[in-house]
Amino acid sequence: MQRRTFIKNMGLVSGALYVGDILAYTPGPTFKDVRTPLAERHFTSPAIEQAILEFSKKVKNKELAWLFGNCLPNTLDTTVNFTLKNGKEDTYVITGDIDAMWLRDSTAQVWPYLPFMKKDSKLRQLIAGVINRQTAYILQDPYANAFYNDPNKLGKWKDDITDMQPGIHERKWEIDSLCYPIRLAYHYWKETGDTRCFDQDWVGSIKAILKTFREQQRKENLGPYRFQRNTFWATDGIPLEGYGYPVKPVGLICSMFRPSDDATIFPFLIPSNFFAVVSLKQASEMIKSINKDHTTADELMALALEVEQALQKHAVVHHAAFGDIYAYEVNGFGSYNLMDDANVPSLLALPYLDAVRVDDPIYQNTRRFVLSESNPFYFDGSAGKGIGSPHTGFDRIWPIALVAQGLTSQDDDEIRFCIKTLQNTHAGTGFMHESFHKDDPSEFTRSWFAWANTIFAELLWKVYQNNPKLLS
């Protein structure tokens, strides 16, 4: 699927227009109208439009208002396909410039909309549809990370050496792919009290997650998953016949790929194991309260506690300059990888995922490490400084990492710096990107990456509500 051309020099006068029952903000003459035209939008939420109008009226920085108006609705405008299937809500969410639905990205893309559901029943239905679609995908293959809308489609990676099925875009095993759907389901339930999504199919998906996590603890054998790809990109394949480098079974869960879709070096990926602890506890609470399945709830909690205890023993290493910090990856034998990757879950984003307290001393030490040049993927240039990823190579900073830095900061100057850097590096497009060059924001990757847009808007909305002076 190709992205529409959004850039139009319309020169509209700043204000609000009523189109039917939709209140629509239009940018002032200084900024181009780059948002998808109303008639071409995939989904429109009055609650989101009202938030855009409120932000534009109250925030004096008109460029931030313009960016917020473009980025907050980008997932709704361009990536969602909502229908009713057998009487149930069903929502397919592409990631942007790739016509496939990632379990991770689809959750993150709609996450900022959760607080608005009470004001917009159709938006609530849309998000319920995401939960239902994710449930179906997990039941199809809990080891896959991305899927097609067409269940018969054979995609680019159909020749990967793994148990590939039609309808699957990619089968890279990532712990966070199974955590994000639980995160969405849990907070949807907490926001709405609606339990209709959490039927026996959903229970089956939770049991599949539990089974998969246990398999990837690799206590008895390597498990059923292996993955190889015919490619010259080292980060796209798994060594040793597709099982990865050895681990010592210590209770942690193996993740063969990072959230960036790059292969891990040591399979015990620490941020994702922290995320798994949170998700298992949330699933346990839901299964017990909604489905009255105390046996499964107890099994989920037992695994959560086991992984949590293993993290306490194996995730912390001592750094000569920063003290005790969390490693990015370990193998249980004593080897570890000290770095952080831009994509979430990351070490930097752990408080955002409710995995650690923001004032946890080890987290604070880790934060100082990952936001320094001691992190091999921290880049500092004339256009900005922040965390990048092997996925995009040297000298490229990710807006998602800058947003994570702002969302987890307790320092006003740091939050202001993150926002200002993001404001200055959209390269005139009005949208965020996957990455930009540290010295030249016009050198960016992925012009249509909806997650980067909505999480940036999430940061702006949080700051607007809690500390609006930082937006001046």
UniProtKB/TrEMBL annotation:
GO molecular function: hydrolase activity
Hydrolase recorded as keyword: yes
One family name in Pfam for this protein: Glyco_hydro_125
SMART domains recorded: DUF1237 (SM01149)
Cross-referenced InterPro entries: 6-hairpin_glycosidase_sf, 6hp_glycosidase-like_sf, GH125
Keywords: Hydrolase
Hydrolase as UniProt keyword: yes
GO biological process, one term: carbohydrate metabolic process
Entries under PANTHER family matching the protein: MEIOTICALLY UP-REGULATED GENE 157 PROTEIN (PTHR31047)
Protein name (database record): Glycoside hydrolase family 125 protein
